[in-house]
Amino acid sequence: MSGVPNAPARQDQAVPLLAVVGIEKSFPGVRALSNISFEVAPGEVHALLGENGAGKSTLIKIISGVYQADEGSIFVDGRPVRYERPDDARRAGIATIYQELLLFPDLTVAENIFMGHAPRRGAGRLDWKAMTAKTEALLASLEIGDLAPGAIVGTLSVGNRQRVEILRALSQDARLLIMDEPTAALTEYDVTRLFDIVRRLKSRGVGIIYISHRMEEIFRLADRVTVLRDGLQVGSRRVAEISSAELVQMMVGRTIESLFPKVAAAVGAPVLEVHDLVRRPMTKGVSLTVRAGEIVGLAGLIGSGRSELAQTIFGITPAESGEILLAGEAAEIRSPGRARALGVAYVPEDRGTQGLVRAMNIRENFSLACLAKVARVGFIDRAAETRLAKAGISRFGVRASSLDQVVGRLSGGNQQKIVLGKWLANQPRLLILDEPTRGIDVGAKAEIHRLMSELAGQGLAILMISSELPEVLGMSDRVLVMREGRLVAEFSREQATPEAVGAAMMDSHGADTGRAA
Questions:
Q1: Which of 95, 427, 445, 490 is such that its CA lies 20 to 30 A from the CA of 420?
Q2: Same fold flag, 18-252 and 258-343+429-436+460-517
Q3: 3-state class of 332 per DSSP?
């Protein structure tokens, strides 16, 4: 049966599983990679780090046969190879699992795993029995007990769909897996399960190139790390011999004293007051206050009701009962348009589908939330729209070739800056940020955090939702904790320790160290 290689990990062997030597790649007007060399040993997790635009995607596309290098060599098991297409790389045992999973939602788990190489019997007919048996064996090999060969992929969680992608690679005898931001859309439970699978593959000699913006994952999983910056190789180090601060400096080319540049701001009168807000099933009698100049962090596990609360305040899912006050006045918010008119801005969790129109250009996206400011008798004033976009690009440091660049082709950090700029063009008094730095690199995170501090210093009230506890603790003046649709604890900045907030999130002993909200 095709499956996981069982050779023991031998990271000290002379011949690596993969070696790239002196890789060069250019596109019209852009030097994407220059003299890149690194290697992966059997049973090694080799992390590939760098800011968006550093060249990581170009490099893995060369390794996986999507692009061909202009110069340099690739060796597999010590033998030189040149891939003209992705199928060549797959036949050599190299598989890439992209952040955007490439599955057929209407087909079963088994059909997705064996798409293109299904077992056959007689006259070319599919051998469904063999396909099911091989799928069950693959599932057993990774101790995945909650997936059935006949399950329809479109009904699965993101975590289970990702496991199907991994199994599809292993069904083709993959010996090198490239994982591109594999945890970006996973719950904490699914992240833990993914790590277990990575460790199991590693123990069986599979080499893994692991790309992630999450520093804690690198230190939990990786053996070595290679850092790219502006298409150049900054260096390769053993993870055990480097600190998080050193990695950050290698990635961004400058010292970041803190990823969370929180500056104390004068806190003013309440901007948002919520009393006994109810929107079933996830918002159950919530009360909170956010003041001018204050950043209030909203922590909680996935499914605790944080995003649902934000959407109710913003009018996407209007409240069934309770009261919302803005600057002391009762506000009935039944739609996002009404929220916007009242000075509320909302940066959603999924910027790609909810925050931007990715097929439109930068200029058009900047004006989406304030068309009234750039419209004249029903027509868009292009000159006014251009002035607005230029001001936004300058203020937020968006890196782009022109205002006409399609937003979907920008890095995640630059896309997030445009979403922020779009809403701040309305000059809101309350800004709701849902996962403001998800999926962006460490340098862009620091820029977003600096901007948050700057906005709070100008008197803006900010309600920030984040699944990253260091971000909540580092940027918040107060921390509120949600669990099962209710606010269960409140901590001042001084009280908000990882242990105290984590205990409140998990309903563990000691969770009431803060004042119950």
A1: 490
A2: yes
A3: coil
C-alpha–C-alpha distance, residues 222 and 44, integer Å = 8
Q: Which of 45-54, 97-106, 256-265, 460-469 has the lowest mean pLDDT?
A: 256-265
Copy the structure tokens of residue 516.
């119950």
- Identify each DSSP E strand in 241-364 by its residue range: 270-279, 283-291, 295-299, 321-326, 329-330, 344-347
The full length of the chain comes to: 517
Cα–Cα distance for residue pair 298/281, rounded to 1 Å: 19
Going across the sheet that includes 329-330, the strands are 283-291, 270-279, 321-326, 329-330
CB 442 within 8 A of CB 51: yes
Q: Determine which of 217-226, 275-284, 467-476 has the lowest per-residue pLDDT on average.
A: 467-476
Q: What is the CATH number of domain 258-343+429-436+460-517?
A: 3.40.50.300
Tens of pLDDT, residue by residue over 3-41, are 444 433 344 456 899 999 999 999 877 788 999 999 999
Block residue for tokens 């780090």: 49
Q: Is the peptide bond before 281 cis (omega within 30 degrees of 0)?
A: yes
* DSSP state, residue 1: -
Q: Please give the Cα distance from 162 to 172 (Å, whole number).
A: 16
> Taking the mean position of all CA atoms in its chain, how far away is CA 309?
21
pTM of the model as a whole? 0.62
- The domain spans of the chain are 18-252, 258-343+429-436+460-517, 352-427
Residue 243 phi/psi, 5° resolution? -100, 165
Q: How far is CA 195 from CA 81, 164, 378, in A?
A: 30, 15, 54
Q: Where are the alpha helices (DSSP H) in 213-359?
A: 215-221, 244-252, 306-313, 336-341
Assigned architecture for domain 18-252: 3-Layer(aba) Sandwich (3.40)
- Please give, one letter per residue, the 3-state secondary structure of 433-502: EECCCCCCCHHHHHHHHHHHHHHHHCCCEEEEECCCHHHHHHHCCEEEEEECCEEEEEEECCCCCHHHHH
Structure tokens at 318: 């209007």
Structure tokens at 87: 């199928």
Over residues 205-246, the pLDDT tens digits come to: 999 999 987 888 899 999 999 999 888 999 999 999 998 878
411-429 mean pLDDT: 86
Q: How many helices (H) and strands (E) does the chain have?
A: 17, 24
Please report, for residues 116, 204, 233, 317, 349, the alpha-carbon distance to residue 197 in angstroms, rounded to integers and kept in the order given.
24, 11, 29, 38, 27
CA–CA distance, 370 with 424 (Å, rounded to integer):
9
- The whole-angstrom separation of Cα 440 and Cα 352 is 13
List, in order, residues 6 or more apart from 313 with CB less than 8 Å away. Answer: 272, 274, 277, 324, 333, 339, 344, 432, 463
